[in-house]
Amino acid sequence: MNIKESSKIAIQITSILGVFFALVSLYFFFSNQTPIIVLVSLFIFFILVSYWIINGFIEKYISEHIKVIYKLIHNQKVKKSPSEKNRPLKVSSIKSVHQQVLDWSENYEKEISQLKELEKYRKEYIGNISHELKTPLFAIQGYISTLLEGGIDDETINLKYLERSDKNLNRLISIVNELETISQLESGEVKLEKIRFNIKALTDELIESFEMKAENRNMRLYYGKTYDRPIYVIADKNQIGKLLTNLISNAIKYGYANTGKVKISFFDMDTNLLIEVTDNGPGISKEDLPRIFERFYRTDRARSREMGGTGLGLAIVKHIVEAHQQTIYTRSTVGIGTTFGFTLEKG
Question: Which of 274, 272, 288, 281 is nearest to 254 (CA)?
Answer without folding.
Answer: 281
